[in-house]
Amino acid sequence: QVQLVESGGGLVQAGGSLRLSCAASGRTFVNYAMGWFRQAPGKEREFVAASWRFGRTNYADSVKGRFTISRDNAKNTVYLQMNTLKPEDTAVYYCAADSAAAMSSRPYEYDYWGQGTQVTVSS
């Protein structure tokens, strides 16, 4: 069982930056692929980024070059650094863990989810 708790969301102007954190419980954090997803009102949950071992990462095209996923396995924490934010980045951001370590972009392949943190980008 893995519990995930996100933090770091908030209100920011377009062009600004935020860093989200996701703290995970459990001793096997290093074995999980960790992902970030987001969901805007009236829209489906969409993939943002994923991370696994050896620096392997995967990004949605919409955030490449602006967002960076990283992880600190000693702290059981994964981060999402978001730069050059746009109003269309406004959503609830969720952290997720995948025991199969596939770094998938499909939400149903993730086993555990956090409660989400709101990110609002004003124009």
Please describe the topology of this protein.
Layout: E1 4-7, E2 10-13, E3 18-24, E4 33-39, E5 46-51, E6 57-59, E7 67-72, E8 77-82, E9 91-98, E10 112-113, E11 117-122
Parallel strand pairs: 2-11
Antiparallel strand pairs: 1-3, 3-8, 4-5, 4-9, 5-6, 7-8, 9-10, 9-11
Describe this structure in words.
The chain is globular. Strands 2, 4, 5, 6, 9, 10 and 11 form a 7-stranded mixed β-sheet that branches. Strands 1-3-8-7 form a 4-stranded antiparallel β-sheet, with no helix packed on it. A hairpin with a 4-residue loop joins β7 (67-72) and β8. Helix content is 0%, strand content 48%. It is an all-beta fold and 123 residues long.
Our count of helices gives 0
H-E order? EEEEEEEEEEE
Instruction: Specify the structural class.
Output: mainly beta
Q: What is the number of beta strands? A: 11
C-alpha-based Rg, rounded: 13 Å
Helix percent reads under 10%
Low-confidence stretches: none
Q: Which sheet architecture does the biggest sheet show? A: 7 strands, mixed
Shape call: globular
> Strand-residue fraction?
over 45%
CA-CA gap between termini = 40 Å
Mean pLDDT: 95
